[in-house]
Structures are given as structure tokens and as C-alpha cells.
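Aim 2 progress update. The chain analyzed this quarter is reproduced below.
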Amino acid sequence: MLPPWWRLLQCLRRYHDTKVIFPHLVNAGKYSFTIASVWAGAFWHIQGTNSAMVMYILLTIAAAVYRSWWDVYMDWGLGRRHVRYWGLRDKLLYSWHWVNLAHPTC
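Predicted C-alpha cells:
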């Protein structure tokens, strides 16, 4: 749980320094969900109740969805609507010419 904790503190520090909510506090929320799911797993392990298990499962699913969305949309830049190449990021690693040569249609 230490790496998400350190990243959470980094996000909070960046928010403190810049006062910019997006992306710093939204990114902090991603790490908060991760930490909460770890705590819920520990709580379930200690308590062993069905309600603790349900809380753990729900928090883990929420954390996984949040992290997946962040990785795909924010980190990879995929799925944005107002970009030059729909479904891709604005800055491409390879040019379209190179891609077309690699996969000829003839």
C-alpha cells in the first residue's frame, strides 16, 4: 500500500502548489480508491463478515474502473472526441504513411 500512498501525497502536494483541481485532485482520488480497497480487504480478512466482503468487492471494482479509465483516457490519450485522429491521441508515435506501408491494402 506504500506506492499508492506516496503517489497520493504527490498528487496532494501538486494540488497544494498549483491549486489546480483537475488533474491533481482527480488523480488523488484514483489513489484514494486504491488505498480504500486495500483497507477494505484487510477489514474483510479480520472481520470475515459478508458485509465486509461486499464492501471490499465494491471498492475494488470502483478502484479498478477508476484506474482503467484514467490509464486509457488520461495517460494514453485514447477515446478523446476533439482530436485530429478520432480514437487516438493528437501526437502519434508513427506517421500515417509509415502505418500504411506496414499494412498494404493490395
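Residues 2-75 form one domain. The helical segments are 2-18, 24-47, 50-75, 96-102. These observations will guide the mutagenesis experiments scheduled for the next reporting period.
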